Amino acid sequence: MKPAFFRRSSSRALLLIWVCFLARGTFYNFALPLWEGWDEYAHYAYVEHLAAGGGDLPLAGEDRISREVRASLDIAPLAWIAHRMVPGSLSYEQFWALSPGERKARTVQLERLPASWRSQAAADAVLWEAQQPPLYYWLMQLPLWLSGELPLAGRVFWLRMWSLAVASLVIPVGYLAARRLSGEERVALGVIACIAVLPGLAIDVCRVGNEGPAIVLYATLLYLMARLTVQPGYRRLWLAAGVVVGAGLLSKAYFVATWTSLLVAAGWLVFRDRAQWRQIVSGCLMALAVAGLLAGWWYGFIYESTGTLTGQIQTVGIRGLSAGARLEGLLRMNWRQAVDTAVTSHVWFGGWSFLQVRSWIYHLSGLFLLAGLLGGVWALTGRRRNVVLVCSFLLAPVLAALAYHALVGYLTIGQSTTNGWYLYAVVVPEVLLLYTGIATLLPAPAQRWIAPAAAWGAAALDVYGMLFLMLPYYGGLIRHLPDGRLETFHLADLGRWSAAELSERLAGHHPGWFLLLALLWLAATLALPLLAWRVTDTTKNAGPSAG
Hints:
Blueprint (H helix, E strand, L loop, with lengths): L7 H24 L8 H13 L11 E3 H9 L4 H6 L6 H5 L3 H12 L9 E6 L8 H12 L5 H16 L2 H13 L2 H12 L2 H7 L5 H18 L6 H15 L8 H15 L4 H30 L6 H5 L5 H10 L2 H13 L11 H21 L5 H29 L13 H15 L8 H25 L24 H9 L3 H28 L9
Antiparallel strand pairs: 1-2
């Protein structure tokens, strides 16, 4: 009998989910304005620096972004946060207040930036993402070279598509991990369908940015840890885990947390299977050594440059603080606010403009997250215990890293906030853990509705966020009020503009492509909840994984 993964029904469903993820991401890549992704211009500048300098790594605090990227910040409208960081730049509101002729002139100017400026350093803009590990930027050098002489916006879109392609590997890898760990095909497909329709994940990966490889590597590590629960002393699995962690450490600094994951997992495996304790301990030490050999040079380099292992600007700013001062900050900071911002920015944050949906949506999502976590605790007493434990081994250290990030923010700028979108790195163990927790709280007949209900909720949030917040704001149909709040968009507001002006505002100079990609995005977004319902029904009798 063929392994479940190769059964025609499951492979077809997985392929459809993958295609839907790519269709949704392609529209996001097209619809989001230039540099709307978090820190996108700085990530792009890193790739450009490597390409122009023959692969030489940038030095944090010293190297500059290119003259081309710096000029684009003065020409193109910028996200609400980025606009306030770049003196003289225009927000979307200010850009759309210009006359049509002035807007056209800026578009032409952006398209005609001299090619020689790509290799010239700007005089007044530091490449502040230089502290990032280099793996993603190495991967993007070839795509940037292949983009040839495209205008800047075309090259950014091209790199966005490559970034999406890398991040999309989370669909098959995440399926294998969830299938191996849960032992149920319907659970794995339902979890992956939910992941594919998450709007926050789409916003996170549909930009030039280094989250994609980390997301895929975390899913791969989850798969390896799931296999280690069955073969705890198998040295090749530990070796593979070491390679994955090493690659992760070269992707994002928060992968440092996986060292804790490996150590805790090894301790649990020794406790569970004492007869193999020597193989488990030696395997774990080998994994840590391999990871250190692969990535240790980078952390030595960044420590020499910044005096910290992460190189993060805020961390550099507090390196002189004593342990007592840090402990005092830990006790004084507003942890409720930190949790609130983490949940808000994890559920839905509209790009670098920090757009937000209605507060009740965040409260409802928070209750769902809390129920999943409580159910996960309850599941520790039942047959799903291994699922919860293995997912927690990866998720808990990242949550601790987020808490430390909030503490650093409080110590440097006095704000108890953190970036919840970092949690998408562990989106597969997170969603699988939440699914398991909710399933523990529900009777068996109701469990098949978990994935479809969650997918419909995510799809509704995605459609609302895109059609009533992101596109209207980027197109100048709504704006920030003097008190910082965003105007509410109503469909009746469309009557204020002619069809030609609406086309320019929403679709730019490519209305045909915009309409086609928008229809594909909507079809894919609505199809994923239907797929989640279908796979939890047609595969409900699937047995444990054979692959």
